[in-house]
What does this fold into?
Amino acid sequence: MGMFLKRIPRKKGGEVYDYWALTKTVRTANGPRHQIVSYLGKLDAGDQEYYHSWDDIDALLDGRRDAVQGELFGKQAPLPAWRQINVSGIEVERVREFGQAWVALAVWRRLGLGKLFSGLMPEGREDIRWDLIACVLTAAKFCEQDTENAIAGEWLPKTALCDVLGLAEEKVNLTRMYRGLDEILAHKDAVCAHLQSRWGEWFGTKLDFMLYDVTSSYFEGACEINPLAQRGYSRDNRPDCKQVCIGLVVTPDGMPVGYEIFAGNRADTTTMREIVRLMEEKYGHANRIWVTDRGMSSEENIEFLEGRGSSYLMGAPRGMLKRYEAEFNDGDGWQPIREGLSVKLVKGGGSEKYVLCKSADRAAKEQAMLQRQLEKFMAGIEKKNSLLAENPSKKTQSVQQSVGRLRERYPSASRHFECEVLSNEKGEACGIALNGKPGQLEWAKRTHGAYILRTNTDCEDPAELWKWYIQLTEAESAFRDLKSDLALRPIYHHLQRRVEAHILVCFLSLCLWRTLEHWMGVSGLGDEARQFLLEMRQVHSMDIRLPTRQGQSIRIRVVSKPEKELAALLSRMKLRLPNVPLELKM
It folds into this structure.
């Protein structure tokens, strides 16, 4: 799905005027269609208001029009009104990517992180303040840089970030970035508390409703000196690599509140109690609703939450479907939420209630996934049978291991069968027999699209409970952003403190990402942050050398003028790029 500006001509009084709308392409049952996100009006109307001088970076990044305190690249003398220039000798030098770094700094300032870190890490004897290194690391991660080596060696020299922050580029080296990671890590709790305060100011978040989920991120390397690096269930399909598990807490608006890091072999269910205790230590022991998927749904966790006076809404294990088979088959009491999705409330023991859910779309998806796995699993067994029929193997154990690997590759299909290695009169493995488990495959097909939620809340409306639970996709979306757009994986650090600092920087960049999406949303521009940042790549800063008739040269620094469409988007967000050229000292 992509976003673009669509021209909409309108005729008034015999004149044709061009109006513009921010439009995205969506997939429908009838093929791709254009969906208007926001009407922007006439682009020309925003141009005069959009362009701004290079005054005061804080005012520009905060979206304020007043407060002229300084200039973007330091105090500079204004250009003289007139000079005679040798046009044939004009040169453009030092072209730098400006747009994405500028957006990163704008969001960094809007979150108040600049002031926070400058207070947490006051200036000392270091050549570059640690709060600025924190800004560089987070902005680079926000712009998809995966390692500190890539930041210092490739990315920084191509961007104007050091120019904007007033840093000597040669001093922002790899060693300083590693030391910066060590300095940042000590302030994790203060950062999370500051962000929680921000979400409260913006969204009225009271932290009485928490969404919690766990993901993993794998390492490149052996990681022998990091006790958290362990092999476990890999959500990245890299069981060959060590990993860490990351538990993330977000608000219903999708804004990150906090996170914790666990060993890579830690079971999801065992992380729940630790997260709850940590959140209570930081934000108080208030009545709170915890929403998690079925990976956290254990009787121990249920008992733990009820004992602390907390409410829960969890996905129930699939094994519960058998218990409520009769209720699923009963047509009474179902409440439609939308076409193809219905829910039903069933009373459990004590204060617990169950929400039975049936989804036609989910059923079709699960059926298709199972069918693909069955076809591939069967094809794999048939291939092995053909090879064994031609060349029986004396290594029966080796054949059993190969069948085991095939079962691991297609677990959804293989769990419905028992596999037996057949032997001939010589004791050689000559084939593989599949024995279906009675009724199990048929039951799986009947329950496609069915799932159960369990809760002890006071709510009696199954539709409302389902809507609460579906907000858990905000946590899953955050994980997707972390991994696909913000380069959480793979992790190249080996020291535990560096790994923890790397994840903290990724967490900060996720907060920037979510804030940008919110900023775009309230500006009527949708929430396609990735597309917006791709558009910002067209904006560059550059130095222009102007040879004068008197034999001297003037060097000025300017920012390229964005295309009309991008200028309109920036105007809607009240982001004004500097456009008054500044003379640089020769």
